[in-house]
Design goal:
α6 (144-156) links the parallel β7 (136-141) and β8 (163-165). α11 (260-281) runs antiparallel to α12. Helices cover 37% and strands 20% of the residues. The protein contains 13 helices and 13 strands. It has helices at 13-20, 45-49, 62-67, 77-92, 117-132, 144-156, 172-177, 189-197, 203-207, 211-229, 260-281, 318-332, 365-381, and strands spanning 5-10, 30-33, 40-43, 71-73, 98-102, 105-109, 136-141, 163-165, 247-257, 283-294, 304-315, 339-347, 350-351. It is α+β, with helices and mostly antiparallel strands. It has a domain at 247-392: DNA polymerase, Y-family, little finger domain (Dna Ligase, domain 1), CATH 3.30.1490.100. The strands form three sheets. The protein has a five-stranded mixed sheet. Strands 9, 10, 11, 12 and 13 form a five-stranded antiparallel sheet that branches. The protein binds a DNA duplex (18 and 18 nucleotides) through residues 33-39, 41, 55-60, 62, 75, 101-105, 185-191, 218-221, 244-252, 296, 341, 343, 400.
Amino acid sequence: MNQVFALVDCNNFYVSCERVFNRRLEEVGVVVLSNNDGCIISRSNEAKALGIGMGVPAFKVRSILENNNVEVFSSNYALYADMSDRVMQTLSMFTPEMEIYSIDEAFLNLAGIGDNLTDYGRQIKTTVEKWTGIPVSIGIGSTKTLAKAANKIAKRTDDANIVVDLTDSNDIDKVLESIKVEDVWGVGLKRAAKLRYAGVETALGLKNADTNRIKREFGVVGVRTVYELRGISCYRLAQNPPTKKTIMVSRSFGRAVDDIEELKEAVACYAARAGQELREEKTAANFMTLFVMTTHSRPYRRIFNSDTLGFPTATNYTPELINYSLNALERLYRSGTCYKKAGIILSGLVPENKIQLSLFDEFDRDKSRRLMQTVDYIKNMMPESNLRWAAEGLSQPWQVKFSRRSHRYTTRWDELPEVA
DNA sequence: TCTGGGGTCCTAGGACCC
DNA sequence: TCTGGGGTCCTAGGACCC
């Protein structure tokens, strides 16, 4: 049987989440900023029309924002993650198999659904919008890359109800010709420049490119993209989230930090977060890398320094992770230097029930596991409790800034929306 | 003055082994 | 003086994605 993929993508996702709880934001320019209110990472159509680019630093478009009364929000990840869950749950009712590809996108397997895929797509779209308040775009194709392309077309069409189905299309080529090569899934800045230099400017051009040449210039990844454009599927649906291979927790500070005590708090905080994620994944780490980054300093250099170490026994026990990370920090820290960012990368992840115990292990693993279970439980049930390890500090002056965050409407009792 | 965070996969090259 | 061939594993870096 032929494969059929649908790509469902939430429109301007973060902005749409804000709009669900704030009617005032309909039909006006809205943007959402990254951590520390640094960059623009989500824009309403009105904001896009003002020429505000994706990923641009907020300070560069400040006057545009102010002159046009654009509503500006800090990121509210608790809200977005919860809204994402709702969307994904709704989608899962329409397919036996789906892959959650990112916070705002999912691939659905629609093979065997029948002839009228467009109708089925519309049904999905209306249901998601009705149940969650989030508008979505849907593209359908015989490969993931074609579904992505179809989605692109759906997004740029004015008709709000459109679902683009390329499996039904006799003139896929005509559609592909209208897509710029840099808009093809898997073609980024570098590859696009090289392709254009070689005279390939559209998705159609890439589809018809000589595979030997593509292989030479772009390796197997490039060839796969060409095949996918030709309707030969190279990427399967990845089911029930594949286990992570690394876990990274890193943040820029709200301000420059030179005091090692403050740095220690931040690092302990990231280690605690990383440990929690390990346990959520039911994995333990064998390696840890700590990195720190200095502020920009003349002449425009950022110094990045890192230290990797292997644990004697794979672990997901937070106090242990904090200890190791603080030791690593002592090695990296140079007094008199201003730091702007730190982060922890955990790798060599193994299932927690398959930990190879060291002969000289002195920890009571069972006791520590129960302690972590209790801590995680309290944190999940009572996020407002602010339960944390002593090493994470109390006032946390280095904390990331979210000066314009909306309420966490769906995950905090104390921030429920009010009905006037 | 102010530029996010979290991932994956592939490749080339070096170390090492027989 | 001549100086093989094949394989694995690991790592760093590049490119891409959202």
